[in-house]
Amino acid sequence: MYYAINQDNQNLEAYCSFLNEIVNTGNIYYANLFKEIISQTQNLIHTHDYYKVSSERFGIVKFFAHFPDVIKEIDVNNIKSEDFQKLSSCFESKFCTAS
């Protein structure tokens, strides 16, 4: 159990780094990765069907599902830099409260 929780935290930290890379440099590869994540999270929020979430993205999608107001505002086909900054603030709240 500890390993699973620790692994989720490490994965979230990696996604936080990817998001910072998008915000700071406009990395297209990571931006496309987050399009997929946002799309799956929006679907999860709408359907509550965890079985439709890909297993490789489950942890991050489950994390972002805790921020429905932020996720629902994002247009997946037209993601703006402000949207990535809002997603980044979700991570800040997670890591600030986890300490």
Task: Report on this structure.
This protein is mainly α and 99 residues long. It has one domain (2-98). The chain is built from five helices and no strands. α1 (2-25) packs across α2, α1 (2-25) runs antiparallel to α5 (81-98) and α2 (28-47) packs across α3 (58-64). The radius of gyration is 13 Å and the shape is globular. The two termini are 20 Å apart.
List the helices and strands and how they pair.
Elements: H1 2-25, H2 28-47, H3 58-64, H4 68-73, H5 81-98
Helix pairs in contact: 1-2, 1-5, 2-3
Summary, kept brief:
By secondary structure, the protein is an all-alpha fold. Mean pLDDT is 84; it is low at 1-6.
Q: What distinguishing features does this structure have?
A:
99 residues, 5 helices, globular
Question: Strand count, sense and closure of the main sheet?
Answer: none
Question: Which outline best applies?
Answer: globular
Please write the string of helix (H) and strand (E) elements: HHHHH
Q: Which class of secondary structure composition applies to the elements?
A: mainly alpha
The helix tally amounts to 5
**Total domain units:** 1
Gap from first CA to last CA: 20 Å
Low-confidence stretches: 1-6
Radius of gyration: 13 Å
